[in-house]
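Continuing the series of single-chain predictions for the mutant panel. This is the parent chain; the variants come on the following pages.
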Amino acid sequence: MTTPSQDLEHLKLLSIFHYVVAALAALFACIPLLHLFFGIAMVSGWEGFVDSDPMTGFMGWFFIAFSSAFILGGWAFAVCLFLAGRYISQQRRYTFCLVMAGLACMFMPFGTVLGVFTIIVLLRDSVKELFGLNE
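Parent structure:
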């Protein structure tokens, strides 16, 4: 059994780790920027890419579309992780924090560890009371 002060300390640590993992997720989401720039170079006919092959333009748009989707999705995930950390520190939006803990498990290995520990802490009855949930 944990005391309320231990629960608050655990929530504070989880909040900090959510910020750190959100920053890592945002950084990793920038990796497809290379593909985005390569696709833009292919479409614009930048030096080395000539329009003699009709597939060059198609592949350029393909690179642009998919890299943009991965970048925006990764940044959205990072923002949601950051918000979950903020909500955990404020003891609000329990369901959002629990869902984000489950989604964080997909971001291996850091998000998996964070997600599992977050789920363990959030499922405690004493923590649910801190969030204002009555059973």
